[in-house]
Write a structure and sequence with these properties.
By secondary structure, the chain is an all-alpha fold. The protein has nine helices and no strands. The protein has a single domain, classed as AhpD-like (Up-down Bundle), CATH 1.20.1290.10. The protein is 61% helix and 0% strand. The relative contact order is 0.16.
């Protein structure tokens, strides 16, 4: 079943301003946004969560670690290449991006702890052990970071799930960054 993918002409009226914002911000309409436009509330919710997550205390590397850890764990064919491109725009190193895409060790223990905790939160549906929390705190993160990871999970749940059900085609600009998960998922 083909999922609706809207442009400015076909979108519901309440989604048109959101699509206009996307067009202005990206110079094009990302495929995810075209699909989200079917539900103005879901589209706006995603946009608000994205904005709020980028305003957390996480730096560009940490934002990328949270996003890509979730994208890889959920095997999002659309979001992994998109966030690889976004990471480039955010000046995140190609080495960090590649390690996230291939589930290889990250360059610092702190970033590795962030990835591990994010994946533990995702796999446990928020149920992490005191030992897992303590390891996250021992790496230099605090209670706010726990909540900010949850915010990132909320945002990525929307985009990953939408891309799964809609089978959103990867945007032309991100096709060279196409991704498929390797044979072995990350051990945490």
């Amino acid at each position: 079943m083909t999922f609706p993918s809207h442009d400015l002409d076909s979108a519901p009226e309440a989604s048109k301003p959101l699509l206009e914002q996307s067009q202005k911000a990206f110079g094009r309409l990302p495929g995810l946004h075209k699909v989200l436009a079917e539900s103005p509330q879901t589209y706006e919710g995603y946009q608000v969560l994205h904005k709020l997550f980028t305003e957390t205390a996480f730096d560009a590397d940490e934002l990328t670690v949270v996003w890509q850890s979730i994208n890889v764990e959920n095997e999002c064919h659309y979001c992994v290449p998109a966030h690889t491109g976004i990471a480039k725009m955010m000046k995140v190193s190609d080495d960090l991006s590649e390690a996230l895409r291939t589930e290889a060790p990250l360059p610092t223990a702190k970033l590795e702890a962030l990835r591990t905790f994010t994946v533990q939160m995702l796999r446990g549906r928020g149920n992490v052990t005191q030992e897992q929390m303590q390891a996250f705190f021992d790496a230099g993160y605090g209670h706010r970071a726990v909540l900010d990871v949850i915010l990132g999970l909320a945002q990525k749940t929307i985009s990953n799930y939408v891309n799964h059900v809609a089978q959103t085609p990867v945007d032309e600009v991100f096709k060279p960054l196409a991704w498929k998960r390797g044979d072995a998922p990350l051990k945490v």
